[in-house]
Amino acid sequence: MRANLANWLRRLETRQIADSEPRLIVRFAHVERLPRSYVGERHLVQIDRPGSERPTYEERPGPGPDIEIDPNTILVFFVPSPRESQAAA
């Protein structure tokens, strides 16, 4: 009985440690790019309200501030295909 109780306590402690660790978050975002003809430094700016489910970013010319996100977050950008951009033009 003591062995069962000790095993149960060990599993419970392990589960509590795992639950207290920060979780990795993956967020997806769309990017509106500058024209392909633009040459020079670029930066990204969020153009919709922060906290939206799938934010939109816009490339702007020149240097700019870094994107501020939680260190446990991976931000994945969706960029339109160059072929789609040429077809729309």
How many strands in all? 4
Fraction of residues in helices?
25-40%
Order of helices and strands: HEEEEH
Biggest sheet overview = 4 strands, mixed
Mean pLDDT reading: 81
Judged by helices, strands and strand pairing, the structural class is alpha/beta
Strand neighbour order, sheet with most strands: 2-3-1-4
**Spatial gap, N to C terminus:** 75 Å
Query: In percent terms, what proportion of residues is strand?
Result: 25-35%
**Morphology call:** rod-shaped
Question: How many whole angstroms does the radius of gyration measure?
Answer: 22 Å
Note poorly predicted spans.
Answer: none
Q: Number of helical segments?
A: 2
Describe the fold and architecture:
The chain has 89 residues and is of the alpha/beta class. The chain contains 2 helices and 4 strands, in the order H-E-E-E-E-H. The chain has a 4-stranded mixed sheet, with no helix packed on it. The protein is rod-shaped and about 75 Å long.
List keywords for this structure.
89 residues, 4-stranded mixed β-sheet
Would you spell out the secondary-structure blueprint of this structure?
Blueprint: H1 2-20, E1 25-32, E2 42-46, E3 56-61, E4 73-78, H2 82-88
Parallel strand pairs: 1-3, 1-4
Antiparallel strand pairs: 2-3
In short:
The chain has two helices and four strands. It has 89 residues and is of the alpha/beta class. It starts with a helix and ends with a helix.
